[in-house]
Design brief:
Blueprint: H1 4-19, E1 33-38, H2 45-56, E2 63-70, H3 76-83, H4 88-100, E3 107-113, E4 118-124, H5 127-130, E5 138-142, H6 154-162, E6 165-173, H7 178-187, E7 189-195, E8 202-208, E9 226-229, H8 233-244, E10 249-253, E11 267-269, H9 279-295, E12 304-305, E13 309-312, H10 313-316, H11 319-327, H12 329-334, E14 335-338, H13 340-347, E15 355-358, E16 362-364, H14 366-374, E17 379-383, E18 386-392, E19 395-400, E20 405-409, E21 411-414, H15 420-426, E22 440-450, E23 461-463, E24 467-468, E25 475-483, H16 489-507, E26 518-527, E27 534-538, E28 541-548, H17 554-570, H18 578-584
Parallel strand pairs: 1-2, 1-5, 2-4, 5-6, 9-10, 9-21, 10-17, 13-23, 21-28
Antiparallel strand pairs: 3-4, 6-8, 7-8, 11-16, 12-16, 13-15, 14-15, 18-19, 19-20, 22-25, 22-26, 23-24, 24-25, 27-28
């Protein structure tokens, strides 16, 4: 496919087999959402053809989702060379794709185009494994011909994907192959061989006539009313995700201006690095990527600074971490080990040891972020205190402190941290939520120290036994302490001294910082077992969602949790695998 003739042939095949074979664009016209699954990336050409067809259709669906499984490594330089020979009408689409396409590394990636109305979700890795981990409902399948290595597992792949088919979903394939046809017949597709308008080109198409499960269906129908309780980082993340999809929501909270974050000048989004690259590490990394994607155009650099972070040796004490980074291509691209001299140069301040530098870490101003999101379109804000909930038939009823009804909702989302427990008790919906009632309320405190007392402060986030953020408004934030009781003055005083001692150790401080002017800010945290949040709908109430237990990573979970819940409500493909969703679901 190195010359223009081959490119034209591939594009012709793509249109007449995959597009026309699946009765597109007719099938997606006038719909709100339509989802396509393809079993191979095929250099992205089929996606580009679909994009052009969708964009040129004045009656197109509002949101098109395109999910791809790919096990073979692709090279962006090679793709760039191929795209040079594309027709002019496809060049702008190809450029946009290349800008967002990640380097190949196993995992799940969400690429958004056309103001988030067109999404490409890449499942990169072993196909027969990933095909069991997709959460979606497909309307059409582009069945790429399997490679020799894939044939052994091809039936398993198609069977897994067919279980996600909507009623009357269609499938198409270019090459006639009795092995593949027998698999499609056996699974339950009605197969037809059709001629095309192109000489010597035919296509094989099939129709799926049943639904395996109704488990994943959109809840948004007939302008259902959505109420979010809680206007903190969790709640605004959900409202933002819904707003991007053009869906209106109502946020209720007594604090609607982020006043609880007054004095909280900044907070960090930095990775959690583990030897086994565990679930928490992967979720944090995904949360950071989603946050940057959502907020980079919303916040100026003064309030969202991708300054990077240094995780000092004193935090790790484990050589296996460094081995993991050196031997993993993705992690070595994100992180690198630096000695004490280079670490000090990066930080612009003397540090006590070398460590791991992460270039993607960010500092965010939480109050500014909350206020900016709450002013977006489709987000309505109600300043009230909630006392209890009730449910009448399929409607949620929300009551204020005077016992009067404040609002009703078809879909209710609790994003109000520890206060969600009392509301769940009021509707007796706690019997299936064992872990929720093991939650702990923890107060986290940070110190605000004048930057001139810390050599001007670091250029990046420093993390050791404590963390230190770059200067903001003349102050550096130093954290953090976590206490269950702030009424114990002796415990608070000891915790604060320990935090300052950790600060001195990180900076090899030779001057006395204990007697400098220091102010403090603290906020409430809800910590669940294993520090894994609860995100998703409650099993016995499919129109009740929770987004709680974010602990000290509210910024990290905010956009990710919002997108998960918005995708569930809309019936969109999730950007995390089923296994991970099982861990996050309310429990």
């Amino acid at each position: 496919m190195s010359n223009i003739l081959d490119i034209n042939k591939e594009l012709l095949l793509s249109y007449h087999v995959f597009i026309v074979g699946n009765k597109l664009p007719w099938k997606w016209q006038f719909k709100d959402r339509f989802t396509i699954c393809q079993t191979s990336f095929n250099n992205g050409l089929d996606f580009l053809v679909t994009w052009e067809t969708w964009k040129n259709d004045i009656n197109r669906c509002s949101h098109l989702h395109y999910v791809v499984l790919e096990s073979s490594s692709y090279c962006k330089t090679y793709l760039r060379n191929i795209y040079c020979n594309l027709p002019t009408k496809l060049l702008s689409y190809a450029d946009s794709l290349l800008c967002k396409l990640p380097n190949y590394y196993p995992g799940i990636y969400r690429l958004e185009f056309e103001h988030c109305n067109l999404t490409l979700t890449l499942f990169l890795g072993v196909k027969h494994v990933l095909s069991k981990e997709i959460v979606a409902r497909f309307n059409a399948y582009f069945l790429s011909h399997p490679t020799a290595e894939e044939r052994e597992y091809f039936k398993k792949i198609v069977l897994n994907l067919s279980k996600l088919g909507a009623k009357e979903s269609t499938i198409s394939i270019i090459k006639r192959d009795d092995y593949i046809l027998n698999i499609l017949y056996e699974i339950g597709f009605k197969i037809y061989i059709e001629n095309t308008s192109v000489r010597d080109l035919y296509r094989i198409v099939g129709v799926w006539s049943r639904i395996w499960s109704s488990e994943y269906s959109p809840l948004i129908r007939n302008n259902k009313k959505i109420v979010i309780i809680g206007a903190g980082l969790s709640g605004v993340g959900i409202a933002h995700a819904l707003s991007i999809r053009g869906i209106e929501s109502n946020i209720i909270d007594i604090d609607i201006t982020g006043d609880s974050h007054i004095g909280h000048l900044g907070a960090s989004l930095s990775p959690s690095i583990s030897v086994d690259n565990n679930i928490l590490s992967r979720l944090v990394r995904l949360g950071m990527e989603q946050a940057w994607s959502r907020w980079s155009n919303l916040m100026p650099k003064a309030f969202l600074d991708r300054c990077g972070s240094l995780q000092l040796d004193i935090k790790f004490k484990n050589d296996k971490i460094f081995d993991l980074i050196n031997n993993d291509s993705l992690l070595s691209n994100l992180y690198r080990y630096v000695d004490r001299i280079e670490a000090s140069n990066i930080a612009g301040i003397g540090v006590s040891s070398g460590g791991i530098f992460c270039k993607n870490s960010m500092v965010v101003s939480p109050r500014i972020l909350i206020n900016r999101i709450l002013k977006l379109s489709k987000i309505n804000v109600i300043q009230q205190f909630i006392t209890k909930l009730d449910k009448k038939e399929d409607k949620w009823i929300i009551f204020g402190k005077d016992g009067k009804q404040l609002a009703s909702a078809d879909i209710l989302i609790l994003a109000n941290s520890y206060n969600s427990l009392s509301l769940l008790n009021s509707i007796k919906s706690q019997h299936s939520l064992i872990d929720l009632f093991k939650a702990r309320r923890v107060l986290g405190e940070v110190a605000l120290i004048k930057d001139i007392d810390l050599q001007g402060g670091p250029n990046c986030i420093l993390e050791g036994q404590c963390y230190i953020l770059p200067s903001k408004n003349g102050y550096c934030i130093v954290g953090g302490t976590y206490l269950s009781d702030f009424r114990n003055d002796l415990l608070v005083k000891k915790s604060r001294l320990d935090n300052l001692s950790n600060l001195a150790d990180s900076l090899n401080a030779t001057h006395n910082i204990y007697h400098k002017h220091i102010s403090y800010w603290h906020g409430e945290r809800m910590v669940l077992p294993n520090r894994i949040p609860m995100i998703g709908n409650v099993v016995d109430n499919n129109n009740l969602f929770l987004a709680i237990g974010y602990a000290s990573r509210g910024l990290c979970w905010s956009s990710l949790g919002g997108d998960i819940i918005a995708s569930q409500i809309c019936g969109e493909p999730l950007l995390i695998e089923k296994q991970m969703m099982t861990i996050l679901k309310p429990r």
